[in-house]
Each structure stands twice: as structure tokens, then as C-alpha cells.
Amino acid sequence: MKIMLVDDEPFALRTLKEMISTAKQDWDVVAAAEDGEEAISLLQKNQIELVISDIRMPSVDGLDLCKYINKNYPFIKVILLTGYSEFEYAQQALRTGVVDYLLKPCSFDSLFEAIDRVEKEILKENSSSNFMQKRDTEILGNRLEDPQMINGHFEPTEVKKNRRVIELVIEKIPNRLSEDLSLKQLAEEVYLSPTYLGRIFKEHTGVSFSSYLIQLRLEKAKQLLTDPTLKIYEVSECVGYNDQAHFTHVFKKFIGITPQEYKMRL
């Protein structure tokens, strides 16, 4: 497990590093910082799984560091070291993703037990993640292998698989129109390259993925425009256009009139 230590006292930092590194063979202290600002810089350069940080530090303190980690590296676990007088800060930190806190002065045994709990949690999460990925791959494979007949004849294996892939992709799109959906994103979900998925999508639907997505978004937009309580920008966001001006441009290009004009004609 790759660990980063953060403490503004150099002696405490050296002691922690030496004790943790020798406590267990697979506990690897790969980075050490004397304040939160330096820690943020090191996070960007190293693969970290656990951060052990003091709460009171100059510049960026431990609490601000916790917030940064929770926002930008939510998979990284944090153990916070805090004094009795800082208990309220620790409570705030727990709301930002800290998995444990230890009141100083704490024994090394207590610290090692906390690290051990985090390591077990990480192993459990990794195991669960690998299982879910394997399960999704197997489900996809089984669905692709599901025998289908067209006009009384079995399809060639490759054609059958490609058709099932496109069916799966088409199933995904309608409920995700508000997302910044891309061919690359969907290709990753069905374990294909974007180029290949784009080619077979057009072969099976007769239109490109981008054209198909625009068509669905505009049809959904027309439905939403019938709701008098929805504003144009709200409709725009609901169908994946965060820029209302761009939405208006696309709508007029394909429908022939602006969303405002369409709404007025209803």
C-alpha cells in the first residue's frame, strides 16, 4: 500500500516514516510533506492510496487537504492525526471522507491498527471492483452470444455480435441524453474501440452515432417544449446542451425554427 505522510514537524515526519516503513513489508511510504500545499503537489506526482496527515499546519491545513482529496482523489483514504482541542475539526473532516482519526498523542500500535483497517478496506474494494468488472464483461459476453435468428436463418457470428452491441448501445442512450455523452464513452462500456463502434453503428442504423444522438435529443426537446413550466435553458440542459445558444443553433438547423418559435406555436 502506497502511503503519504503530512506533518509540519520534520522530526515527527521522519519518525513516522521510519516506524511505518518497518512495521509491515507492503506499507510503502512513497511521499512526505510538511504542509498541505506540498502534499497537494505530491499527490499530482505519485500514486497514493493512503494519506496520514496532521490537522494543524501552515498554508493549507489538514482539513483543507481532506476537502481537496475528497473532491479530486475520492479513492484515496485519509487518516487524520488531531489533538484533543481540535475534535470539532476532526468531526468536520469525517464529513469530507476521512476514514479514521487518531487523537494525539497516540501509540504506534493504534496507528498501525488504523492503517491495517484501511488496507483491508482497500483490498475489499479492489476485490469488489474486479468482481463487478468481470461480471459486467461476462454479462456482456453472454448477451452477445445469445443466439438469434433472422428470417428463419442464424446470423453469422460476427454480424450477430455486432447487432447485439448496437442494441445494447441504443438501450443506453435515451436515459442519458442529459449527459455529455460521447462515442468514446459508450465504446469503453461495451469494450470496443470508438472507431469500430462508430463503423458498425452506422452499418446497423444507417446513420452516424452523432446524427442519431442529435435526432434523439431534438425529439426529446420537442416533447419537453410542450411543458409550459420549463424554460428554454432547462430544456436545453435536459437534452445535453449546457450552452443555450448552441442548443438554439442546432434546433433551428434541424427543425427549421428556434425552440422559442416552436414553443409559441404549440
From TrEMBL:
Family annotation (InterPro entries): CheY-like_superfamily, Homeodomain-like_sf, HptR, HTH_AraC, HTH_AraC-typ_CS, Sig_transdc_resp-reg_receiver, Tscrpt_reg_AraC-type_HTH
Record-listed 4-aspartylphosphate modification sites: 54
Cellular location(s): Cytoplasm
Main location: cytoplasm
Signal peptide residues on this chain, from the entry's feature table: none
GO molecular function per UniProt: DNA-binding transcription factor activity; sequence-specific DNA binding
SMART domains, per database record: HTH_ARAC, REC
Domain Response regulatory: 2-119
Domain HTH araC/xylS-type per the UniProt entry, residue ranges: 167-265
Keywords annotated in UniProt: Cytoplasm, DNA-binding, Phosphoprotein, Transcription, Transcription regulation, Two-component regulatory system
Gene Ontology terms: cellular component: cytoplasm
BP GO annotations: phosphorelay signal transduction system
Domain of life (superkingdom): Bacteria
Classification via SUPFAM superfamilies: CheY-like, Homeodomain-like
Protein name as annotated: AraC family two component transcriptional regulator
Species assigned in the record: Neobacillus bataviensis
